Amino acid sequence: MRILVLHSDIGENPPPEEIDTITSSNAVAGALRNNGHTVSLAAFSPDPDRLQAILEAHKPDIVFNMVEGIDGLGALAPVAPRMLDEAGIIFTGIDAVGMAVTTDKPLTKRRMREAGIPTADWCEGPEWKGLKDDKTYIVKSTLEDASVGLDDGCVCLGKDVIARAELSAKRFGGKWFAEEFVDGREYNISMMDGLDGEPFVFPLAEMRFDGWPSDKPRIVGYDAKWVELDVNDLMVRDFTTEQKDPVLAAKIRKACIGTWKLFGFTGYVRVDFRVTPQGEPMVLEVNTNPCIAPDAGFAAAGEQIGLSYDKLVQRVVDNAFAAARREQAKAAAA
Prior knowledge:
The chain has 334 residues and is of the alpha+beta class. It folds into 3 domains: 2-91, Rossmann fold; 105-180; 185-333, 2-Layer Sandwich (D-amino Acid Aminotransferase, Chain A, domain 1), CATH 3.30.470. It contains 12 helices and 13 strands. Strands 8, 9, 10, 11, 12 and 13 form a 6-stranded antiparallel beta sheet that branches. It has a 4-stranded antiparallel beta sheet with strand order 4-7-5-6, with helices on both faces. The protein has a 3-stranded parallel beta sheet with strand order 2-1-3, with helices on both faces. Helix 1 crosses helix 12 (309-333). The relative contact order is 0.14. The mean pLDDT is 92.
């Protein structure tokens, strides 16, 4: 099978998170070659003629979509699946609609709240309705991920939220919002669709801050993730919750499946949670096409069920073909 691994065009002097995209793309390409496929790599272009030329040159049976942004903007990542769909190409991962909706974090939270899926309280400018001066919040980018703009100062009291949001907008651009900071257990849950289209929840990964510096808020900010700290040495990924706390595990799994079905996902995602002191899991955000590098959480979750990295990458491809067949069957029956 001919597979094109399509990744972001990172340009010159890219930031660390964009370099990581290329590293992950090379790892995926290696796994696909190990599985016997003919693999090529190319940088995505939002120019229709240029993209068409890329597709004609490589003639892929399927595109493994690793595009995480355009011109450094993660908010533009949905352009890639939209253009691939318009070109009639089968591709891996989330479609443009699901990606676009969940890229907007407050919109995602509103949709989840309306559907009864638990999510932490939040507020947005310019009205900042519901903002409480004495409550602790984390100020986040509305549209960007990769921990952009998250540092020790992003966790602050409500009385400081507006100033922090204005500072972040001035420094990084875009819109910012405030989410109630849940200083509890953290979970990063990997999911993918099965060949039958039903969502599969991998073993639950708790991210324990066992070695975290005491003078830092318990968040994986930008510098901690990409610059200053070796997060893998400071945190422990624990897969024992389902054995030790089955009630909590059941709540997390229910929220994961509800989130998947709410947004009509196919492909693979990661759903991030924090757990309140009362033991209630709150969905913080949904990461579509999350990092699938060999040392990332998705691969670690796969190992828990006996999936080697090569097999995990192959399953992503198989699921994409299965999803395409289901869509074709629906169209034929309509």
